[in-house]
Design goal:
Strand content of chain A: under 5%
Largest sheet of chain B: 2 strands, antiparallel
Radius of gyration of chain B: 21 Å
Distance between the termini of chain A: 7 Å
Structural class of chain B: mainly alpha
Radius of gyration of chain A: 17 Å
Oligomer: heterodimer
Structural class of chain A: mainly alpha
Helix content of chain B: 55-70%
Number of helices of chain A: 8
Strand order of the largest sheet of chain B: 1-2
Shape of chain A: globular
Helix content of chain A: over 70%
Low-confidence stretches of chain A: 117-129
Low-confidence stretches of chain B: 1-23, 319-327
Strand content of chain B: under 5%
Largest sheet of chain A: none
Largest interface: A-B, 58 and 48 residues
Shape of chain B: globular
Chain lengths: ~200, ~325
């Protein structure tokens, strides 16, 4: 079933705002030399634009198979970073799979783009080789994974230092970690909604 | 009795966006992990509430159908609220979805944990009445297979069991940290005992009743789930009353198992999780794969409740320390 226009516009607006904010983070980081995770911020910009286009066709940026290729490459990069993160984790502590979240998000984007976005059954039928029931299950598994990441990020939120504390030591303060976590939450919730609404 | 100590596991989280080496340390004890699982279920509920059919009058009709068979004092408020929702389906459903989203994020974000848990109890109680018709408990249609006593009341129970308790309180399982082990055991017996009772009611034990419920839940489901349910329904078509009796016995054993000495009390939550998984399959995963549901059914919630009663194996020396302390 096609998602309600009202709710699709709301989620698209959220994505545009999130993407816009991440562009401003990248710009501020470049101009003021403030540290930020540029790869994650850039990915949030691209994901925000792609998802807004899938939710509201008017906002769609046409780039035939370009989006899929982009997110496959990004997913591979985040996968590599996740492996490195895992290998370098402290022996006594459990490292939260930060880059796994991005890897999962890239996988979900490829899945949705290959499936034709929300509710486009004809596109799904022509571009995917799996049966619809397998796609139902896969979309649910991806959505549950993303929701788990959202909850994990929400739990981490209060432990992240505010910008004022990070800049107190005389070094250049990094861009707000809490707001970046909020961007991850917004992305995760919207992506999970789209995966559930697909079928 | 071995004491349940909320073991704090330091988790070093590489802060996102950090090149300068700032690290945030998050401590997650077992109770916190269970709270996060509860937040995840609320989040799933919120996402399911955002589905397109919920913004139509079909959602109000679904709520209205839960009034059937209930006494007037239960049914009248249900019909009134369903009428109100039918008049403003978009606004009311958006509010419902947002409330559930805020509850999920509130439980996930530590500063608002208590407020969100308290609010979730109030919200769940309202949904249990106005959305689920008290789970069919008073209408005689309650069955473990159709989700009785209702997912909403299980959310409320989880909020109570997972309320942040006193860290110095000794309890054999996470659920006893706030309420104390005795009250937690009474709640366990009430839940699983009532499920055993529901399994013996005609709604479950009548010939063909189980098979009908499972068949209706499997309609339009993905092939693998539909096939699984079809096999189960075929088997239960002839063995329904016996299966209901066996199920009731297993549920009763789970209920009393928590009060027995150690091996049995550790086995009770494991059996409960297995039963919850079977119920989840029988309920067609609550219909979340076919866009007809606002929650994943009672199965995942029962499994989470069972995890709250999991008793960790005592570590070497811990039992001796407990004995010394009590001496």
């Amino acid at each position: 079933m096609t998602p309600s226009p009202w709710i699709a516009y709301s989620f698209a607006a959220l994505m545009i705002v999130t993407a816009g904010y991440c562009v401003s983070r990248l710009a501020a980081s470049w101009r003021r030399h403030r540290p930020t995770d540029q790869l994650a911020d850039a990915m949030h910009v691209l994901m925000g634009l792609a998802m807004a286009g899938m939710l509201v066709p008017l906002l769609r940026v046409y780039w035939t198979e370009g989006w899929e290729g982009l997110f496959v490459v990004a997913g591979a990069s985040f996968g590599w970073l996740a492996v490195r993160e895992w290998r370098s984790r402290p022996r006594v502590a459990v490292t939260a799979p930060h880059h796994l979240h991005h890897l999962l998000a890239c996988g979900a984007m490829v899945f949705m783009l290959a499936g034709g976005g929300t509710g486009d059954a004809s596109a799904r039928g022509t571009t995917m080789t799996s049966s619809p029931s397998e796609l139902h299950t896969l979309s649910l598994v991806l959505a549950l994974g993303l929701l788990a990441c959202v909850v994990w990020t929400a739990d981490r939120l209060s432990s992240l230092a505010p910008v004022s504390a990070l800049g107190a030591s005389g070094r250049r303060a990094p861009m707000s970690l809490r707001l970046e976590a909020c961007c991850e939450i917004a992305m995760g919730v919207t992506m999970a909604y789209m995966l559930i609404a697909m079928y | 009795m071995t004491s349940y100590s909320p073991e704090l596991k330091p988790v070093t989280v590489p802060s996102s966006g950090v090149r300068a080496g700032q690290q945030a340390t998050v401590r997650r004890d077992p109770v916190r992990l269970l709270q996060l699982a509860l937040a995840g279920l609320w989040l799933l509920d919120a996402i399911l509430q955002f589905q397109a059919p919920m913004f139509t009058k079909a959602f109000a009709r679904m709520l209205d159908s839960s009034a059937a068979g209930n006494p007037a004092f239960v049914a009248t408020p249900i019909r009134m609220s369903a009428r109100l929702i039918a008049q403003h389906p978009t606004v009311t459903n958006a509010v419902f979805a947002l409330v559930q989203l805020l509850l999920a994020l509130g439980i996930g974000w530590r500063p608002t944990l208590r407020f969100a848990l308290a609010s979730s109890v109030v919200w769940s109680a309202a949904v249990w009445w106005l959305g689920e018709g008290l789970g069919g408990v008073l209408s005689g249609s309650a069955s473990p297979v159709n989700g009785a006593p209702g997912p909403a009341i299980l959310y409320a129970l989880l909020a109570v069991l997972l309320w942040p308790g006193r860290r110095d309180r000794e309890a054999p399982f996470a659920a006893g940290q706030f309420t104390g082990p005795s009250v937690a055991r009474v709640l366990w017996i009430a839940l699983w005992g009532s499920l055993a009772l529901f399994a013996l009611l005609p709604a479950t034990s009548a010939p063909g009743a189980l098979a009908r419920m499972i068949s209706s839940a499997s309609a339009s489901q993905p092939a693998w789930l539909s096939a699984l349910d079809a096999h189960l329904a075929t088997f239960l078509a002839s063995q329904g009353p016996i299966a209901a009796f066996v199920g009731a016995s297993a549920l009763f054993a789970v209920a009393v198992g928590i009060c027995l000495p150690m091996p049995a009390s550790r086995a009770a939550p494991i059996v409960a999780i297995v039963i919850a998984l079977v119920l989840s399959v029988a309920q067609g995963l609550g219909g979340i794969l076919i866009g007809s549901s606002t929650d994943p059914g009672s199965g995942p919630l029962l499994a989470l409740i069972a995890l709250c009663y999991w008793q960790p194996r005592p570590k070497d020396g811990e039992a001796a320390m407990t004995t010394q302390r009590s001496a």
